[in-house]
Every structure is written in C-alpha cells, then in structure tokens.
Amino acid sequence: MYFMRRRIFQKILFSLIALFLFFSFLIILLEFIIPSKQDITFGVTFSPSYATYLGLDWKEIFQASLDELKVRHFRIPVYWSSIEPSQGKFIWDDLDWMIEQADASGAKIFLAIGRKVPRWPECYTPDWAKNLSTDEQEQALLFMLEQVIERYQSHPSIEQWQVENEPFLNYGECPSPNHNLLQKEISTVRKLDNRPIILTVSGELEPWNRSIRHADILGISIYRQVYRQGIGYFSYPIPASFYRLRSMILSAIYNRPIIVSELQMEPWFFKSFDQFSLEERRKLFTVSEFEKRIEYVQRTGFSQVYLWGVEWWYAEKKWQDESLWNYAKTLFP
C-alpha cells in the first residue's frame, strides 16, 4: 500500500512538473521567439470624483480628453451614491453631460454600473441604502440598474455595459463577493438591453474563468507597480506573454473576446497624494515609465486597452509638467 501511494504521488508530481515546464516553454516562446507587436485601440477610464479629489474641474478634463487627446473610447463609472443620493430620487446631470459630449464627438462609452465600480473605495452604496436589510438593498440596487439602462440605452455612444468591477475580488470597502446577486444584476441588464456585458477581473490576483463564463467580453486589469504594507513598492515580475498565453487559452475555450479594461498609468499612492511632495509623486510615475508600459502592453497581444490615469496626466499638466499629457496625445487618432 505504501509503495502504491508513493507511485501515485510520484506520477502526480511528475505530471505537475511536466505541465509547469510546458507552460514555461510556451511563455518563453511567446516572449522571445514569437513576440507580438499588436496594433491597439486605446481608451481611458474617466472618473469625475477622482478629478475632483485632485482639485480639478472634471468637466474641463473630460472636454480636454475629447478635444486635445482625441480620446474616442471611454469607460465611465456610475456612482450609485451620486446618482441616487435619496431613495428613488435620481440626479442625472453629470452623466447626461458626459454622454451628450461623447455623442457630439462620435466617442464610444461603456458604463460601469453596480455597487462596486472603479476608483477607491470601490463600493458606492448610498447612505440611505446602508440602513436597509440585505434583501431591500439588493432590490434597490437592481432598481438603480434598471433606471440607468432605461435612461441611456437609446444613446448611440453606449457600446456595452460593465456590470460591477472585479466582482469576485475581495477588495475595497465592500461586502463579500456575492455570486447570486451578480447573476441577478446580469439578468436585469440582459432583460432590458441586448448590448454586450463586460465583467472584469484582476489580471494578477484572481482566476479569469469565473467571470468570463458569465460575460460577453472579459476585461482584465494590468498593474505593474504596487505598494504592500511591510514590503513597500514592488513591480510584478510577470512577462507580457503570461497575459497573452492566458488570453489565448481562455478565448479558445469560451469563445469570448478579452480586453484590457484597466492598464495602470499613474502612481500608486498608499496615502493621500498630497502627503507626497511634488518630486516624490513624479518619481513614482515618469514619462519613461509611461512609454515602457505602452511597449509592454503591445506585447500582450490585446487589441483594446483602457488606460487608467487620464485625470492624473491632466493634474501634472496643471502643475507645470506636460510630459505625460503630451505623450498621451501620440496614442489616440
């Protein structure tokens, strides 16, 4: 019995080693022997609340993104706490304005809707909804989704709907991930509109298959430099071909397109940005690093990439350093 167990263990171990060596060979092959230099359509994530946090006029940045950068693809988060500050009373002015500007410029948008959407603290539950029971809060969330879709589904600029942001990743000031609620949200969106649904995942921190099976399009985030307590700043030692190979396998299995919904193009701050000096902030993200990350994402093989940080580039421009903003101008038609 001992020897039989030992043989089984050895077979499993050898199989795992063989798989590891096989995938390592594929990554090396893709990274160095068959490199990809993909033509990319770039877009940006735009957050009015983050622009305001930086002390800027968010409308000015959005208009400059359209007119100066010539951005024609936007991901825009819909903050539940902003559009429904009182139960059943919706304020649409800011979203209306952005979508109207996009319509006039021929730009395309996908709205990120749900409780958890891009930018810290990730979840934007209104204060009034926090006092509801779990069932009541879920119904209020689904009602909000219905209102957003019914209001904007007639706009030609809306291409897709992103439902939640990285819904299976336990991150931010949020409740625990809830698969059943996510299914209800997806069903609500599909009932009202036939545009594709995007689900997103962390490219580094979670499996992709849980989300891709429920989505029409999978969006992944790619982060290059992060901060962890006790470690400090560090860069992920992940070759571009890792994302390329992973995408090739899952696209083949699920027959779904995969895009980069969030490519880190700004500094990672572990405390309020104004607690860093201007020099410290600029050392954390330079135009040279901007160029390196564009070259990196070109080797991943993705054809559509949404950049994260347009508000920061404009802030730097306001602070007398236009290098990030000017380099970004070269990326858009």
Automatic annotation (TrEMBL):
Origin superkingdom: Bacteria
BP-aspect Gene Ontology terms: carbohydrate metabolic process
GO cellular component: beta-galactosidase complex
Residue ranges of the TM segments: 12-34
Keywords, alphabetical: Glycosidase, Hydrolase, Membrane, Transmembrane, Transmembrane helix
GO molecular function: beta-galactosidase activity
Domain Glycoside hydrolase family 42 N-terminal positions: 65-181
Protein name, per record: Glycoside hydrolase family 42 N-terminal domain-containing protein
Organism in which the protein naturally occurs: Candidatus Uhrbacteria bacterium CG_4_9_14_3_um_filter_36_7
